[in-house]
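Incident log, structure service

09:12 report received: a user says their structure output differs between two submissions of the same chain.
09:20 pulled the input from the user's history:
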Amino acid sequence: MTKQPDLLAPDVFDTLTLDRRLRLRAVETDRYLLCAGTTGISAIVDPAGQLLQQLEMGKQGIIYAEFQPRTSMTPYVRFDEWRVGGDGGRSPRDGSTPYTTFVIRQVVASIALVALTRCATPSPSAPVFEHLDECVNPDRESMSWRLFQGRVIEVTSARTFRLRTDEGYVMNVSLANVGEPVDAEAIDFLRKMIGGKRVSVMGNPSKDHPRDVVGEVDEEKAGEISRQMLRAGAATFVKEPAYTLSDYSECLHRIAEREAKAARVGIWH
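09:34 re-ran on a clean worker, output below:
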C-alpha cells in the first residue's frame, strides 16, 4: 500500500488528472493505492493500475475492495534518488527532482497509461467474487472495516481467540457468523488453522471496547476462517448485527453452512 499526500494538492483537482496520478503511483511503486479524499475523489487502485473502486468528487460514501500487502521494489522505488550525469549522480540537495529523472518518469508513466487503456485483459490481482447469483456484489456495498494483523497467541473457544497485533497490543477476536452449537472437535479444528499463526482481521471494534472485535479472519493457507468452520460443520451459522461484516461475506457463510448440511458433516452428520 502506498500513501501520496501530494495527490490531493489544489493543482490536481481535475478528476481525470487525479485518476491518472493515482494509477501512476500504483504502477511505479507496485503497490495497492488507497486514497481517501475529503475534498477530492477517493479510490482504490491495484498494482497494475486498475481502478478497483472509486468515489467521485463531491460525493459522500464508503468504498470496499480486497488488497494484499506487498514487499517488491520497482526500479523507480529503488533508484528514484539517482540521476544521470551531473553532480556525482545524486539529486540536488534542495530535494527537487532532477529534470532527467522527471522526463524519464513522465515517459514511463505515459507508456504505462497507454497500455492500461488499451489492454482489455483483467488484472490477475483483481478480486474474483463467488456466488454473485445469490449474494450481493461487494462492489456495491458502502461500508468500511478496520484491518488488524498479528499473531494468534491463544485460541480460547471454538469461535474466539487472542491476537497480538503488529502494534503490540492484545485483542480478543470472535469469528463472525460462527455460533452455537459447535462440534466437539471444533476448538481443535480452529487451533490447527490459526494457532500461533499470523492472521488478518477485518472488523469494527466499538468505542467502549476497542480491544474486542467480531470480524472476518483470514490465514494465508487456511483462507477465511469462519467459512472454513461452517463448511466443515464445526459450528452453526448465526447472523451478526448490521455492519459487523459485509453482506456478501455473511451470504458466503450462510452458503457454507448449507453445504455442510448437504454433505452431512460435523454437527450435521
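09:41 both user submissions now match this output. Likely a transient worker issue. Closing.
09:42 reviewer note: The first helix runs from residue 15 to 29. The chain has two domains: 5-118, 138-268.
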